[in-house]
Amino acid sequence: MCSEGSALLSRYLDAAEEYDRRHLMLLAAFRARDPQATEGFRNLVREAQRAAHTACGRFREHQKGHGCCEAIRLDDDPVLAF
Ligand SMILES: [Zn+2]
């Protein structure tokens, strides 16, 4: 994988991790039956999901043109299924 592909993949993985963190906080807010926190985390989760989606798109775009890491496919990532 070239250094640009590697950087794009790292950016996607960071964004997906941030999504996971925020999603867990959202579930905790649900569990605590805290409507204010739930709404706040819901927005943060959406924002993180968009960021992950964008980062994934950039990585895929790079792969289309460069094909430097064909073994990695992000299609099955649940973060992207929305
Ligand atoms: Zn590349």
Q: How would you sum up this structure in a few lines?
A:
With 82 residues, the chain is mainly alpha-helical.
What can you see in these coordinates?
This protein has one domain. The chain is 74% helix and 0% strand. It contains two helices and no strands. The mean pLDDT is 89. It has 82 residues and is mainly α. The structure holds zinc ion. Zinc ion binds next to helix 1 and helix 2.
SSE map:
Layout: H1 3-31, H2 35-66
Helix pairs in contact: 1-2
Largest sheet: none
Distance between the termini: 28 Å
> What is the tally of beta strands?
0
| Low-confidence region ranges | none
Q: Look at the structure and give the mean pLDDT.
A: 89
Number of helices: 2
Helical residues, percent: over 70%
3D shape:
elongated
**Beta-strand content estimate:** under 5%
Number of spatially distinct domains:
1
What is the rounded Rg?
A: 15 Å
Tags for this model:
82 residues, mainly alpha, 2 helices, 74% helix, binds zinc ion
